Write the structure tokens for this entry.
Amino acid sequence: MYSKTSLGADQLDGPALSPRGKKILIWVGGAVLAAGIGVGVWAGVSADSWGASGNGCVNVTTPSTMGGQTFHYCGTDAKTFCRSAYVHSDEVSLAGRRQCTLAGLTEAKVTSAGG
């Protein structure tokens, strides 16, 4: 008889996996598990290049309508960003001032003639 909600007894019995099929299934499952563990360990211990401002690089994260926006600048771009951050008073500039200081790009360094 036809059943919409559960499998009938005649539908539950299917061909069993052969020993070779079981081995393949175990190897594939083990490989997927090992890859997942490897990615998890890598994500947990790898360095985050955009984590914190420092060494002349500035990272600023601000809230936005889609969750957040990260600004990342290094070198000349960081100096230009910091110069602008110290002059303007918008949300990104205000958040960027502290990050510029952490990166060693103080107001005096970026607004000087040689900056």
Notes: The radius of gyration is 28 Å. Residues 57-111 form one domain. DSSP finds five helices and two strands in the chain. The chain has a mean pLDDT of 82.
